[in-house]
Design brief:
The complex is a heterodimer. By secondary structure, chain A is mostly helical. Chain A is built from 6 helices and no strands. The chains are: A mainly alpha, B mainly alpha.
């Protein structure tokens, strides 16, 4: 291994097969793998239990009909925020800092709007008495969407931090890492939306 | 600060972000539309939903998350969990879906809710 320049975390992974891959990117992918298994536990439980009790689950799912519009809009919102995030990463790599910062803010705003709409949807559920203890389907609905919501919030906070630091130094590698996380959160919703609301 | 920027972002052709975004939006519409199509069996409906969601997911992974442009070990790391997920769910099916909890009302609903559903 050469000592000609210091290997800080965002530089090459030393393994030749992964030459050019930053350590930070590798670390984020490994974390996302664990997150996939995390959601797999919840979604897998939902799927297997639902197959065992189709009528009960479907009867409860009908009560979600009113919220499909909200959820569909939220899906489009998250996909759009993935686009703006990807463009923010690109802007960071091209050293277009102002554009990077703006796109980070837009992505954060979209995430925040998602959470606001979700909260409104929750308030409607509470008003109709559709609480997590209503039945098993709603226990899953609340748990899955709330944990996903926490993940969204956990993505917005670093994004705002990146917006702040992008003006002071080069955070393109970090932006790419947070971008990977944000796309993952979008991915989870892409599966959650049909599984909870549609089928 | 870092003098090997080329290393952390290895060169790849420009990513067609907007085309992928458009495709994702179109397929979200297809997702919703497909839920109205009544294929004969529930399994077929679910398979269609998963196929569409899987396609959207792969678009996000390969283009937005740059997997198309990453080295093989990274792609392998990224895709491995999905295989494990399928194993996990399949392994639990016989017990949870078809075993002792099959059609167990006590587990899945409350008496008040059940009456409400049956009254309809």
């Amino acid at each position: 291994m050469s000592d000609s320049h210091a290997h800080s975390w965002e530089h090459d992974v030393c393994e030749p097969a992964m030459e050019g891959t930053g350590l930070g990117k590798l670390a984020m992918w490994l974390f996302l793998c664990s997150e996939v298994m995390f959601f797999a536990g919840l979604l897998g439980a939902y799927m297997t239990l639902r197959i065992g009790h189709p009528e009960n689950f479907e009867a409860s799912q009908k009560l979600l009909h009113d919220s499909v519009g909200f959820a569909a809009f939220n899906t489009a919102l998250l996909i759009s925020s993935s686009l703006t995030m990807a463009l923010a990463v690109l802007a960071g790599q091209k050293k277009e800092t102002a554009k990077q910062r703006l796109l980070l803010l837009v992505t954060s705003a979209m995430g925040l709007l998602f959470l606001i709409l979700k909260s409104y949807e929750y308030s409607l559920k509470i008003k109709h008495g559709l609480l997590p203890n209503h039945d098993l389907f709603f226990a899953f609905y609340w748990t899955l969407t709330a944990i996903h919501g926490v993940h969204i919030l956990a993505g917005i906070i670093p994004m705002l931090g990146l917006w702040y630091y992008a003006g002071k130094k080069d955070v393109s590698a970090e932006t790419e890492m947070v971008g990977l996380y944000w796309h993952f959160v979008d991915l989870v919703w892409i599966f959650l939306f049909p599984l909870l609301y549609l089928i | 600060m870092s003098d090997s920027h080329a290393a952390e972002h290895h060169e790849h052709p420009p990513v067609p972000y907007f085309i992928v975004f458009g495709t994702l939006v179109v397929f979200t519409g297809i997702t919703i539309g497909a839920s109205f199509i009544d294929l004969k069996s529930k399994a077929a409906n679910v398979s269609l939903a998963f196929a569409i969601a899987g396609f959207k997911a792969s678009l996000v992974m390969f283009y937005f998350m740059h997997l198309k442009y990453e080295k093989r070990p990274i792609v392998a790391i990224a895709l491995a969990p999905f295989a494990l997920v399928m194993v996990l769910v399949a392994a639990l099916m016989p017990d949870i879906a078809y075993g002792q909890y099959h059609n167990d009302d006590k587990l899945t609903t409350t008496p008040a809710v059940k009456e409400h559903h049956e009254a309809k």
